[in-house]
Specification:
About 50% of the residues lie in helices and about 15% in strands. It is an alpha/beta fold and about 400 residues long. InterPro entries: Transposase_mutator (IPR001207).
Amino acid sequence: MIRNESKPSIAAVKELMGANHDKLRAIVQDLLQEMLEGEMTEALGAGRSERSEGRIGYRSGHYNRTLITRVGKLELRVPQDRDGRFSTELFERYQRSEQALVASLAEMYVQGVSTRKVKAITEELCGHSFSASTISAINKRLDESLTAFARRRLDEPFAYLIIDAKYEKVRQAGVVRSCAVLVALGVDWEGRRQILAVERANRESRSSWKGVLVGLRDRGLHGVEYVVADDHAGLRAVREVLPDAWFQRCYVHFLRNALDHLPRKADDDCLQELRWIYDRRALSEARSDLAAWLRKWSPRYPKLTGWAEETIEETFTFYRLPRQHHKHMKSTNMLERFNEEIKRRTIVLRIFPNEDSCLRLIPALAVETHENWLEANRYLNMNDLKEMKKADIRQAA
């Protein structure tokens, strides 16, 4: 447990916000040290010199361990117990994504595609320069763990599947190209979020998405009732691989697509009123509002209203779900937030030096997020969906 006196003071936080790297490094080092001591206390069932009936071991000094982070090199003292049973997950989890970021920066420098600024950042992060052999060793360790994560069996069933792509700039043969990173998230029947796949493709095509989905199925993906995706042609592969699942077209993407059917100087109220339809509690209410919207705007924007009337039903599938799931499952926003977190962590790179570094850093961040999600409280209460499923089975019988 972190003691109050070890937490950053207001003054320390102000210095942190002012980019005082020495102070930031000291704060992070103190916090991580307290985390290590807290882990040991929890493992032994008692604090240092504490008398406790539940104690299951005793401390036996410390050993020194260096942790490389983006705030510099941290020197930590890792507690030990007499029986040698204590093991911390702090280093493995934290350094997986940090090493991937550092390795990508270092590759930029070694390959000669970086600027002096990148070199300075790399040395500031790690306290020293990198050789090609050092980068190779870091990458080998990372690749082994990331490959194991990407190939793991999906034994439990997943009720919900959310898929979308994000684009990254990658240097290929001296040319900077925009490459798609295809991401699949799942929500299992216990309501926990998990990252199921992160794969790179040259573009979002039907064949590339079909490959991702077939790969998930081969790894054991089953039980999918409902899929959320954009209307991109590649995502129609869902219908081929998961034909029995309900398909929800992301309503946020749908509203963005609506702009293509409006003149440049369109009335903002038109799209705002279309947006409000998705706040209705039931499908009957949404369809009633849609009819009113069509009557109001058809004379002025016939191209938009004709397109909407023909395609909007796919954005109403979420009304099949329990009402408390609507706000979470009517769009790909869950995945969009994950993509924003990736962008926040990768913005320092701007351009990946090669495809391998792209498929090393983003999956490393995905693993970190995946583990945090599993440890958090469940994302959705699935009891109502389970009851709906049972009712459907009884009705079919």
